[in-house]
């Protein structure tokens, strides 16, 4: 009897679990709930990527230094007190750190054109799942790496994973949130998670490294990444989704790159992120030399900037909802904020004073990113095909250009010209580029027309619908239009040439 009762209880529980699974599946069919869950998955992926990007800042330099000391003790048992050997070692150490930090952005920069095209072909869910898996592997390798070569491999793998996860995640948000106000809000939330990940990672990594060892912060991030990958697999079901079969063919990335409006936005994203990318590898040494700052102060320097960044995102989303035609103006304001803040950094004398311009930089970046990322999606909607993988790959390339140059170029500029000149140059570049956003002034007035549809069909018709439309267009060019009489027979009639050529209906 006991065995029978156990079997009945087990069967009852399995039945309940089956019912709950069905209910969850029914709930997930609701488009609003599905969009929210997708936003959560993407935000977690962006948070993890940026935490992994910045968590190594307080960990890896100290860890590599320990590895070098152990190697030196194993090979040479003498103590270096004077001479030129310490200088050579320090220079080599700085080069190693710079190359390691830049490798992620360099790999991401190389892979992004390919990942953008891949996303346009297969959809957004499979690349997102692939990216999360690669990020998980790279995080595990970071946790157990014991030499420079393994750390370099892990950092490069993270760049590969980010090229898929970041681009497909942002593109997925743009695809699911089609209304401009909704899209701006959703992308603003994603940007807030990016900021939080970047700014909370150094103190998070530093504290866990100090009290729990090198493995723990990476194991925590790997567990979060694994959980997000499971959510992606169960909610998005990337390998059973048939929606991608009906996806239109996206505009090739090289055509998007030569679009003047997209080029202006990409340039703004590069310029506005240069101060952040160039200061991250240089500001710690400057603080130690000029302020004699302690390690905890260096680690917490950027953390307060999270709050003005979120404030900037919030303000831009609210302003864009009321005045959507002024997106270019919000971006220009952000670049002026960044420029002014960069120029004031060298004048700071204390740790507290330095926080103010750093908050100004992050506040300005929030304005630029939150205003211009939705603009990229809108430009694709009205000037190209509404497939977003390639255009957000261009945005990711813009970020990577700044962050790939940062660890390598910034140190050289500081060495040759000085920290003051570096900041003045970055500030001036932002202020001079801000007027270029005037070119985006009329973007909000753009509407799809027959001419864009012609561009999409320039390689020939691909189906019955396009064939019929192309034939009708040729008849319209000759002054003829088709009508259908009562007997269902198609006839031709002269068309008035005052008729509008583009109503947007065909494109829609």
UniProtKB/TrEMBL annotation:
Keywords: Glycoprotein, Membrane, Neurotransmitter transport, Transmembrane, Transmembrane helix, Transport. This is Major facilitator superfamily (MFS) profile domain-containing protein. The lineage of its organism: Eukaryota, Metazoa, Chordata, Craniata, Vertebrata. It is found in: Membrane. It holds the Pfam family MFS_1. GO terms for cellular component: AP-1 adaptor complex; AP-2 adaptor complex; terminal bouton. It comes from the Eukaryota. It is a multi-pass membrane protein.
């Amino acid at each position: 009897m006991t065995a029978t009762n156990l079997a009945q209880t087990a069967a009852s529980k399995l039945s309940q679990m089956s019912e709950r699974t069905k209910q969850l599946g029914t709930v997930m069919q609701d488009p609003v709930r599905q969009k929210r869950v997708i936003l959560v998955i993407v935000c977690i992926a962006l948070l993890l990527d940026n935490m992994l990007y910045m968590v190594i800042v307080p960990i890896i330099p100290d860890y590599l230094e320990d590895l070098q000391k152990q190697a030196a003790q194993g090979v040479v048992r003498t103590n270096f007190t004077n001479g030129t050997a310490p200088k050579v070692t320090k220079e080599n150490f700085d080069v190693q750190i710079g190359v390691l930090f830049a490798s992620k952005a360099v790999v991401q920069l190389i892979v992004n054109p390919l990942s953008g095209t891949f996303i346009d072909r297969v959809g957004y869910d499979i690349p997102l799942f692939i990216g999360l898996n690669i990020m998980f592997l790279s995080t595990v390798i970071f946790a157990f790496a014991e030499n420079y070569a393994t750390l370099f491999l892990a950092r490069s793998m993270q760049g590969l994973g980010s090229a898929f996860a970041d681009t497909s995640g942002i593109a997925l948000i743009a695809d699911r949130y089609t209304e401009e106000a909704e899209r701006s809000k959703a992308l603003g939330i994603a940007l807030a998670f990016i900021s939080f990940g970047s700014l909370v990672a150094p103190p998070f990594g530093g504290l866990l490294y100090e009290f729990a060892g090198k493995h723990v912060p990476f194991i925590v991030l790997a567990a979060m990444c694994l959980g997000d990958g499971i959510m992606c697999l169960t909610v998005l079901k990337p390998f059973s989704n048939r929606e991608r079969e009906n996806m239109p063919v996206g505009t090739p990335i090289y055509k998007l790159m030569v679009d003047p409006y997209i080029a202006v936005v990409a340039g703004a994203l590069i310029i506005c992120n240069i101060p952040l990318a160039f200061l991250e590898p240089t500001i710690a040494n400057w603080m130690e030399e000029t302020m004699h700052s302690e390690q905890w102060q260096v680690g917490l320097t950027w953390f307060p900037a999270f709050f003005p960044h979120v404030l900037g995102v919030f303000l831009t989303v609210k302003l864009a909802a009321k005045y959507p035609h002024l997106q270019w103006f919000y971006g220009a304001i952000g670049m002026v904020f960044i420029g002014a803040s960069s120029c004031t950094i060298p004048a700071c004398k204390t740790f507290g004073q330095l926080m103010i311009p750093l908050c100004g930089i992050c506040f300005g970046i929030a304005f630029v990113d939150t205003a211009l990322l939705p603009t990229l999606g809108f430009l694709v909607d009205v000037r190209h095909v509404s497939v977003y993988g390639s255009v957000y790959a261009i945005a990711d390339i813009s970020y990577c250009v700044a962050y790939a140059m940062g660890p390598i170029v910034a140190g050289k500029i500081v060495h040759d010209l000085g920290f003051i000149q570096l900041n003045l140059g970055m500030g001036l570049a932002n202020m001079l580029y801000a007027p270029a956003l005037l070119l985006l002034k009329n973007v909000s007035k753009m509407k799809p027309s027959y001419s864009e549809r012609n561009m999409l069909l320039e390689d020939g018709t691909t189906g019955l619908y396009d064939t019929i439309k192309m034939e009708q267009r040729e008849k319209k060019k000759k002054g003829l239009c088709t009508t259908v009489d009562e007997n269902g027979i198609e006839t031709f009639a002269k068309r008035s040439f005052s008729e509008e050529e583009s109503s947007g209906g065909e494109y829609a």
